[in-house]
Give the backbone structure.
Amino acid sequence: MTTKMVARLAVLLSLMPALLLAATPARGADASGASAGARLVSCHRSPAIDQRVATVGTWMRPVDGGTRLAVKLDLWERPAGERWALRSDVPGLGSWVTPSDAGVGSRAGDVFRYRQAVGRLEVPAAYRFHVTFHWLDADGKVVREVTRTTAVCREPDLRPDLVLRSVEARPAGGGSVRYAVRVGNEGESAVARAVVAATLPGDAAPGLHTRTVRLLAPGATVVVRFTGPGCAAGEQPASFVADPSNLIEESDEADNGLTAICPAP
């Protein structure tokens, strides 16, 4: 055997693992990983539900025997303290999507990319997308299926929480009472222009008197004051409500009201 022949044989032996690997049929999701993929493109967190959005991006390429491409996206949700569950109420999810150009998937260089955003995410919760890819032949038969699961989009509860902590009533002269109401924010974000409404003894309708808190940072407390009549035993005492029109999305809506003690001093 000549030196040149020995060199060629050595090169051939060094390539054998790669040649064998290339000849091995792809099995399962990992083996066909080069043909499709999905990832969490963005996970936008916000105190406002309209701005909480998760976006998934997917791509797939043709495979041998397949001439048509299809992808299906599902969203799974795990509220705090609960298990993962499929969200079946999101429009556009759970259905097969195909390229607008029916020829995509029949050419070697084709790439089908698809992106889906899901908004109005509830908090606190975690979300992830489960993506199924189908390659079909000319008769519509599935020749390969691959699934992918994205990274988790975690949505913490960043909402504010207005709390009426206490109300103090003191005589103000002339039969009037001055009410000092302590308003706090126990949430995770600031509140701008929060309204506190008062219903004082003798009022013909609730919430006739209002004060506006310009800005209330997380953990902060301010005092708002009202002046009006006191009440005698058995009469309706003064009551107070933060955000009476429910304009602010809060983590807890059950701690916005407080009633003064009657009779007021």
